[in-house]
Amino acid sequence: MSGQADYGSGDAPPAGTSGIGGDASGGGAAVIDLELRAIPANGTIGLEWKRVPGALGYRVYWSTEEPLELATADVLETEEPGVVHRGLVNGMTYRYVVRVVGAEGDGPLSTEITATPRGEWVLEQLGTGDFVDILTGERVPRVPIEKRVHVMLLPEGYLASDLATFHGEVHDVADPENDVDRWLAEVFTIEPYSLFREAFVVWYLPRASSARVGEGATAFGIGVSNGAVTNVRSAAGPLFAVIDGMGSDAFPFPPGSPVENHVAAFLVLDATRNPARAGYSGVTTQLPNPNAPGQRMPAAFAQGHAHEFTHAFAGLRDEYLEDDITVTTTAETSNVVSTNACNALPWAHLLAGAGIHDVPELVGAFGRPERGYHSELLCLMNGTHENGKYWCGNAEADLSLRSWGRMCNFCREMTAYRVLEATGILPRETGFEQWKSEYRRAFYDRFGFKVPTPTPQRVLCPGEESRPIYEPCAE
């Protein structure tokens, strides 16, 4: 079976005609080529089209009847040039027309297309590929869907009766009621993911396990011990079997080798929570394809979702100060390095007075030689109790130092760079040099340097009042 999504346009009418049934509001309406495309999936169809300058929104007319009549068709409203149509019946043909809505009211119509939902993978979020160009502030030319970042959400330990907890009929990221929506809400409210949402296409696989984790055979063979997931490498075989683009569970856009723009995220049901939902302490790794060891998939397991996903997608490290971590190198794209020398830090450009900002006692070199240094005290990539033990000098201190809703500025910058690299805007071989010379300053000019409150950032140790912590780099 072909692994490429079917962009079938059905029997498109000739240019200049509507191809739809006439009615009082639509008869004789101008027709333009919006390059309307459909991405059929399990119970869903993604629709995308060209962004029209000056448009206030778009109205998607749809029907299962032929011909499609504007007067009787159902309508989806959207401000973006793309939408996911949900709750559909696999095997049924759906017909679509898009109308541009401008300041003066209804505008022209697109030509009509048809699509038929199918398969096992559900399309959850369709980033339209035309995110903001850091250099110009306009939009980049639309990245083809096969080159956007594909995120695959997979359920582990969900029985058939639990799948509504993984993702139910209601989709509401603003007020999430299921684990997939909670994942989206956690990840895409954090910069830079919120800035480049159009770069990401998110899918989920509603596959039940025959047992919950720790109680028998599960869909991907993951275990759990002392509140943390284990045996994650057992997921490699089942994972690559469902993303190879073949069979009834064919993934519409299978990854290449090497994997460049795909990330897997496993949501593991914790039935001990009340109510049961995705949980357990997370981990991230690279899963090798058993049939092609050179193909390795970055994979995040369990929670916290944004922290583990950022490991997998951006390659950023834990900013932990724990005993089993040793840092011996300093790489330009790493958020944890072995030196605290000011001129050797990958984030030297973010030191106060270096040209980006003048905020004192925020960016420095926090850590210790054998465990590595990071740029700001608090960050999404921080540890929890490990860093508490260090800063408080108390082996029992269990502090939550992780900033769940905010990356430090350097992690935020490196993740934005990875978006451009993954989507091909920047080449993998020379892209970081181009980032430094052309994009780095433009990124902060356009999106700002983010200053938390208060500064210096503070730590609250047990039995003490909160105190500011700042560790400068070494001149």
Low-confidence stretches: 1-26
Strand percent estimate: 15-25%
Distance between the termini: 60 Å
Please report the first level of CATH classification, the CATH class of the largest domain: Alpha Beta
Helicity, as a percent range: 10-25%
How many distinct folded domains?
Answer: 3
Helix/strand order, N-terminal first? EEEEEEEEEEHHEEEHEEEEHEEHHHEE
Record keyword descriptors for this entry:
single chain; 475 residues; alpha+beta; Immunoglobulin-like; Collagenase (Catalytic Domain); 3 domains; seven-stranded mixed β-sheet; 7 helices; 21 strands; globular
Report on the architecture of this protein:
The structure is a single chain. This protein has 475 residues and is α+β, with helices and mostly antiparallel strands. It has three domains: 118 residues, Immunoglobulin-like, CATH 2.60.40.10; 191 residues, 3-Layer(aba) Sandwich (Collagenase (Catalytic Domain)), CATH 3.40.390; 127 residues, no CATH class. It is 15% helix and 22% strand. It has seven helices and 21 strands. The strands form six sheets. Strands 9, 10, 11, 14, 15, 16 and 17 form a seven-stranded mixed β-sheet that branches. Strands 3, 4, 6, 7 and 8 form a five-stranded antiparallel β-sheet that branches. The chain starts with 36 loop residues before the first strand and ends in a 7-residue tail after the last strand.
